[in-house]
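A student in our group prepared the protein record below, which I am reviewing. Here is the record exactly as it was handed to me.
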Amino acid sequence: MAKKLRIELIRSVIGQKPDKRATVRSLGLKKINSVVEHEDNPSVRGMVSAVAHLVKCEEID
């Protein structure tokens, strides 16, 4: 079974640059404390690292 990432928005995107807001939105996060699960692949890892100061990420099986 492929690994998944559980991503949670923990900080607001207010005051962030538009590209950071777009990255959070493309991950599927809308409100603070919203949670999404994505397959673990390099593109999702790159998006998470770009907004690491706004999200919390953990690996799940």
